[in-house]
Fold this protein.
Amino acid sequence: MFHLKWIAPRAVVAAIALYAVSAAAQTPVGEKNVLSPYEGPYGAQPAARRPLMDLLERGGLSGPLDEARINLYGRAEGSYTYNFDNPAQDLNLGRVFDIEHDQFLLNQLDLNFERVVDPKIHQFDVGFRLEMLYGGDARFIHSNGLLDTDDFFNGPENQFDVPQLYVDVAIPVGNGLRVRAGKFLFFKQIDPNASVFYSHSFTFGGALPFTLTGVTGWYPLNDQWSVEAGISRGWGQSLEDNNDAIDALGRVRYDMSDRTSFSLAAITGPEQDDDNSHYRTVFDATVNHACTDNLTLLLDVVYGYQGGVPGGDEAHWYGVAGYGVYRVNHQVSVGGRLEWYRDEEGYTTQLAQNLYEATLGLTLTPFPSDRLGSNFKVRPEIRYDYSSRAFFDGLSRHDQFTAAVDAIFNF
């Protein structure tokens, strides 16, 4: 859904499509990272000791942090996107994070302080995560009442945000329960390492929220099934709330085998301003299959519904996205994405339409064996977007074609 207060001054011409979904389970492929291991249910953990902690260790400063199991890590990301259609107002409509044409961006300078708990060891434990973000991406993910701004376009390009600030408690009951309370990412990840492409699908920005503030409980039923459920103040709400209602959210994950997993995530509740009775409900189903050690496929299906739409009774949106990633070697991976997204009443894009996109990209790790250089990656891509309506370039074109590249350094 669009943040309408951002686009009101420029009406539909500035309608940046922040919609539908990507992120079902804990890091499947597609909008998740197929080139890295899954995130565990306890939080994201770097696969190896990153440069920041390594530097502290060399300086003799990491001892107390290691003893307390506190990890410091982060990333820096910059990018450039070129739209071959020279769009009006230099905006790539339908995008999130990569809306600027012909401009270099500092997307993210991100720092995390984290202590991960593992409820499966059957011990009471307390952990936390504080994530701080500076850069252009912060404009899109501000929550209500916390560092948000009423001026999206005329405000500073690089802004500060706190995407996640939560406490985890491991409780030794049954197979191990983890309770999380605070502000967190539940359905999607903003970490560019959690995707094989720089640009995001049409179904990334608005059919599911970026951040939630609330409480969830995660519980493994056995080695294959896990469930997570909870409540929150609503989509993008934190220190303030746009209504007096809460919503319910949940996820079921089934690891069929070492190569195949399935997840179903959902959220439902009143989300419109000053409206406690009309519900918004979204389902997201994802199937992830590693065909071989080098080839991974993903299918992502989303459906959304909003009742009590101003000027109408209800709205529906849904879509399908397919992903494939082939790892050539330790230095090169090739990814492809095909997507169809339908916004029947124009509730999420401000225009009733069918959207299609095709993206082809590379993930290049030039120095995979170097202790420092292995943390650096470059991702060039080309992308073609098509709409059944004249949606692009100030509502004058049916399509747009872009090329982009981003660079990421994990520290």
Q: What stands out?
A: Residues 1-45 have pLDDT under 50 and may be disordered. The two ends are 33 Å apart (CA to CA).
